[in-house]
Structures are given as structure tokens and as C-alpha cells.
Design brief:
The strands form two sheets. The chain has a five-stranded mixed beta sheet with strand order 2-3-4-5-6. A two-stranded antiparallel sheet has the order 1-7. By secondary structure, the protein is α+β, with helices and mostly antiparallel strands. It has helices at 116-125, 155-158, 162-172, and strands at 9-11, 18-26, 41-49, 53-67, 74-89, 103-106, 112-114. Helices cover 14% and strands 34% of the residues. Bound molecules: zinc ion (2 copies). One zinc ion is lined by residues 68, 70-71, 73, 132-133, 137. One zinc ion binds next to loops.
């Protein structure tokens, strides 16, 4: 039998009340991230334990290799996300929660909090919708396919579209 032990695991069975801090570090594949992620995943955690709940604040970060939507080059991007979570032992109805708080209910005999899955999901959520190698990426020339970040092509010298003539006149004024 293979016993799965989480990479990001906190033993809460004898945790005293108050603040506890943790620094975790693991390989991305160990928490289920795909092959775009090759750098260590770092997770900083601050727990605030009180009589009836544990308030967690975490920052997870790593680096991913992505393909630029405009120029199709690969680039490395730091993906980072802060999140918080409230762990309630027993019954969530007895706890006074703010509306936007994320809550996980732990059974009374829970000894560990495992953070792998949350860390993985928050990394995935932190990937930008639009992936650009840089804000001012020039993209690929639609006629010759040259990556314009690496230098201008000469395509527009041959374009006969009158709209380009108008633009040329403008730029000469
Ligand atoms: Zn690009
Ligand atoms: Zn071109």
C-alpha cells in the first residue's frame, strides 16, 4: 500500500493557540502541476489558531514557462498568489464568518491540514488570461511570419494598401 503524504502538510493535533509560521518548498510535479512548471513551488503560511478555528494566510509562488499569445515565443513568468482560508473544527454554523471568507470544515479527529491541492489551484488561477512575453510584445508579422521583437521585416515597404500611404504621410508630418 502506498500511503500518500502531502508535500504541504501541517500537523494541527497539538497546535497551541496563537501565530505559527511555515515555509514550504517542493517540486511542482509533486503537487500535481503540469510540465509548464519546473521551478520549486514555495509556500509561506501563517496560521492564527484560536479556540474554535484556524485562520490561514498563505502566499504560493513558482515560475512557469508559457507560450506568448502574440509572438509564440516561450517565456518564463513568476506566478504568485496570496490567499486565505478559515479552518473550522466541527460545525461551520457556530462560527461567525465574513461573507467572502473561504471555509473548510475539519472533522474533530483531523490531525493535519494538507495544502497541496489549494496551492495547486491557486497557482493555476494566478496564470494570466492573456499570456504575453512582455506588455509591448510586437508579435508576428502576418505576411512573412517574422517575430517582430527580433527586428523589423520589410513587408510594409511593399504594401500598396492606400491606408498605409495615409499613415506614411501622417508620420512624415
Ligand atoms: Zn511575445
Ligand atoms: Zn513581415
Amino acid at each position: 500500500v502506498v500511503v500518500f503524504v502531502a508535500e504541504f502538510r501541517i500537523n494541527i493535533s497539538n497546535l497551541s493557540e496563537g501565530i505559527h509560521e511555515y515555509d514550504f518548498n517542493t517540486e511542482p510535479f509533486k503537487i500535481g502541476l503540469d510540465e509548464r512548471f519546473q521551478s520549486a513551488v514555495k509556500l509561506q503560511v501563517k496560521l492564527d489558531k484560536s479556540a474554535r478555528q484556524i485562520f490561514l494566510q498563505a502566499k504560493v509562488r513558482t515560475e512557469g514557462t508559457f507560450v506568448c499569445d502574440r509572438c509564440l515565443d516561450t517565456f518564463i513568468f513568476e506566478v504568485a498568489r496570496k490567499y486565505s482560508m478559515v479552518y473550522v473544527q466541527g460545525d461551520r454554523s457556530t462560527i461567525d464568518l465574513k461573507k467572502d471568507e473561504e471555509v473548510q470544515v475539519l472533522s474533530p479527529d483531523t490531525n493535519y491540514i494538507d495544502l497541496d491541492e489549494d496551492a495547486r489551484q491557486y497557482i493555476i488561477l494566478a496564470i494570466p488570461q492573456k499570456l504575453l512575453c512582455r506588455e509591448e510584445c510586437e508579435g508576428i508579422c502576418p505576411s512573412c511570419g517574422v517575430n517582430r521583437n527580433n527586428g523589423r521585416c520589410t513587408c510594409y515597404d511593399h504594401v500598396t494598401d492606400p491606408r498605409w500611404d495615409a499613415l506614411k504621410k501622417l508620420s512624415h508630418n
